[in-house]
């Protein structure tokens, strides 16, 4: 029997922008069902460009992206849904939490009763069922990000793309959200690709970390982490976590711009 196609498969994908900037050199990457893959690397190494290619928000200049072994027209079919979470939660300030979460279902033309029935389960997944009637201005930054995640989950995605979603949050809130994300992804087997500037966040969340280098953007190394490790506070304090962080620090130092000849401050 043939092995199932990876959820995402990039084959010799490169990106040259219209102004001639080479965002990504040709690279290959396959992400399998249920993986939580983080992209880390110095500023400008092409993390967001890679994520946008996977989201079909950018078109490759060369090579091909396949979603579940097919082209982008497969997206939206049963078992092939994709959701994007950005750093800015971009909530509608004039609508309450429930209406904000319902938005993608409204845009998809899901009948109102059916859509309403999916709001509370999505809010429950992010621990916000008590806040359905509140307005964005009445929420903390962490709560607004949880609403944004609930809005991504309400479509029941098969692939979640997250671009530095917790980068603007304080460390305590970020750690809590990381723990929730890890639990959610493990429980639902949700395939996730996660861009972060924090190696600690990548170490905590991921089953695989892709370390990227700049000029031009490319994959420098891949680091696999046992997905079976419980991602909780105890893991954060463990020797295993410290070792993973040390290894990732070493890999990042190999691609640090100063190593490549840049002057410090
Ligand atoms: N629309 C665009 N037009 C031209 N160049 C672009 C465009 N978008 C990105 N780039 C360039 O492509 C390269 C990769 O950018 P990208 O934003 O993907 O990097 P990044 O790793 O996500 O950076 P950061 O960590 O700072 O967010 C950079 O040199 C950037 O200046």
TrEMBL record:
Family named by the database record: Belongs to the ABC transporter superfamily.
Gene3D superfamilies registered for this protein in UniProt: P-loop containing nucleotide triphosphate hydrolases
Source organism of the structure: Gluconacetobacter tumulicola
Entry annotated with the keyword Hydrolase: no
MF annotations from Gene Ontology: ATP binding; ATP hydrolysis activity
InterPro entries listed in its UniProt record: AAA+_ATPase, ABC_transporter-like_ATP-bd, ABC_transporter-like_CS, ABC_transporter_ATP-bind, P-loop_NTPase
CDD domains in the record: ABC_NrtD_SsuB_transporters (cd03293)
TM region positions: none
Residues making up the signal peptide according to the UniProt record: none
SUPFAM superfamilies: P-loop containing nucleoside triphosphate hydrolases
Pfam families membership: ABC_tran (PF00005)
Alphabetized UniProt keyword annotations: ATP-binding, Nucleotide-binding, Transport
Protein name: ABC transporter ATP-binding protein
Domain ABC transporter: start-end pairs: 8-241
